[in-house]
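Saturday, quiet lab. Running sequence design on the structure tokens for the scaffold JK sent over.
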């Protein structure tokens, strides 16, 4: 054991709070999931767009905290011109800036979809990260309720394509319903109204008791942290709760949306009116929608869990107009990729299988690296995932490396094989299975399980045959 003490300048390897690393298995599964979503969005006629990870803070909206350093809820910094810049907290505000900046060059309505990471400077917790991915679709430049109805249909068809048929509901309501209640209750203070919006948005998770606390003095969560409430009078709080728990009347836009989705063949089992949907962001101005998963689920300890909302959106007619002197109506829908991925994985609806590692060409003679690299290239040219070992270790360590990589086989050519014009192929999957059946070391050396030789010219064909046999096993 070494007595050497760590250097005082040594940096501790650690992740920032609320961040996570995403490894190969999940990345491959995400790629498949995002591809499915993209196909649906493309079928609906939306075009892809990408925007930067940060914007000038004033472009992100008037609802950001008005402080000397606007970092409550967002990550902000000053650039070389001493202008405040903030990491995007969603994909909608950057879209509004893009449309305003390119207004004359874009067709109206402008239809785009985008996927990317967004950043929230909020308290992290289990399943709640400060960096997470969203997948959005938006239609900008029309106030037609048909655009809102289409968003609901798009959300439903996306979840169907991902194999969630019968396990979700798209809920539709209108921000104007709550605004009407707040106006009637005399709740005029804009900051207080925003607290009410955020409280109501938690209704599915917290129920009447939790929302009632947030409409009043505040609520302490399971960790002991206290969230200040809206401090409404009892009569005001009761008016808001009545909207959430009763049969609230619909408005004209909602009636039109429901009529359109029914006409397109979407029944109440897929899309329906629900007055509890308000969405938490302040910029929504009309119809709002939410995609909720409805299947029962349990965690590893057998406790009941709910995935709840995996996406939502609504109409935001004032966001683009902030940049222009004319009204620019817009509507959109956003998927929470991480939560949806977790739900699909839980149901076994996504291919999260670990991809096979590459075929590894071992380096038996460092003077012949060019020959080994040529073998790897021959395999890659035949669409076989392959690599030459580029480390500096001997054969035993190279074999361990191939095992850790999940390699299906390794290619060996030492002096004896080269003299015969051959290569040896070692099937690591079969070798691993057979090793459990051979207990004697001498028997192992004699048997050399799952190892065979072929001519150099037959290398590619032999590996292709082996991989095909492994795929059938």
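Result came back. Writing it out in full:
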């Amino acid at each position: 054991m070494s007595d050497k003490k760590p250097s005082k300048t040594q940096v501790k390897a650690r992740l920032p709070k609320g961040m996570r690393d995403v490894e190969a298995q999940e990345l491959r599964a995400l790629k498949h999931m995002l591809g499915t979503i993209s196909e649906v969005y493309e079928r609906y006629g939306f075009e892809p767009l990408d925007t930067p990870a940060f914007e000038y803070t004033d472009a992100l909206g008037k609802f950001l905290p008005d402080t000397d350093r606007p970092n409550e809820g967002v990550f902000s910094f000053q650039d070389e011109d001493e202008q405040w810049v903030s990491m995007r907290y969603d994909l909608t505000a950057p879209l509004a800036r893009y449309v305003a900046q390119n207004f004359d060059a874009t067709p109206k309505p402008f239809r785009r979809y985008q996927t990317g990471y967004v950043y929230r400077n909020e308290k992290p917790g289990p399943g709640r990260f400060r960096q997470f991915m969203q997948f959005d679709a938006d239609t900008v430049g029309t106030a037609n309720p048909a655009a809102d109805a289409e968003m609901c249909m798009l959300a439903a068809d996306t979840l169907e394509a991902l194999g969630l048929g019968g396990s979700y509901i798209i809920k539709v309501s209108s921000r104007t319903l709550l605004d009407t209640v707040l106006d009637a209750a005399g709740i005029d203070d804009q900051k207080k109204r925003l607290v009410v919006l955020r409280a109501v948005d938690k209704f599915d998770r917290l129920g009447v008791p939790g929302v009632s606390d947030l409409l009043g003095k505040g609520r302490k969560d399971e960790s002991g942290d206290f969230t200040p409430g809206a401090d409404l009078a009892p009569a005001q709080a009761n008016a808001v709760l009545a909207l959430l728990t009763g049969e609230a009347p619909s408005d004209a836009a909602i009636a039109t949306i429901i009529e359109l989705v029914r006409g397109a063949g979407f029944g109440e089992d897929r899309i329906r009116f629900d007055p509890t949907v308000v969405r938490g962001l302040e910029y929504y101005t009309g119809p709002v929608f939410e995609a909720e998963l409805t299947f029962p689920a349990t965690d590893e300890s057998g406790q009941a869990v709910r995935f709840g909302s995996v996406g939502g959106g609504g109409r935001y007619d004032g966001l683009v107009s902030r940049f222009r002197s004319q009204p620019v109506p817009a509507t959109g829908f956003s998927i929470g990729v991480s939560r949806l991925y977790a739900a699909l994985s839980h149901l076994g609806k996504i291919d999260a299988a670990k991809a096979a590692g590459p075929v590894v060409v071992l380096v038996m003679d460092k003077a012949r690296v060019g020959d080994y690299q040529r073998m790897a290239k021959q395999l890659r040219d035949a669409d076989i995932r392959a690599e030459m070992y580029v480390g500096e270790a001997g054969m035993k360590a190279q074999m361990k490396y191939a095992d850790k990589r999940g390699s299906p086989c390794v290619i060996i050519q030492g002096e004896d094989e080269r003299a015969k014009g051959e290569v040896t192929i070692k099937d690591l999957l079969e070798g691993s299975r057979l090793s459990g059946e051979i207990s004697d070391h001498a028997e192992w050396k004699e048997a050399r399980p799952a190892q065979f030789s072929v001519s150099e010219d037959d290398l590619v064909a032999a590996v292709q045959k082996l991989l095909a046999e492994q795929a059938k096993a």
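Notes for JK: The chain has 15 helices and 20 strands. The two ends are 45 Å apart (CA to CA). Ask whether to fix the surface positions before the next round.
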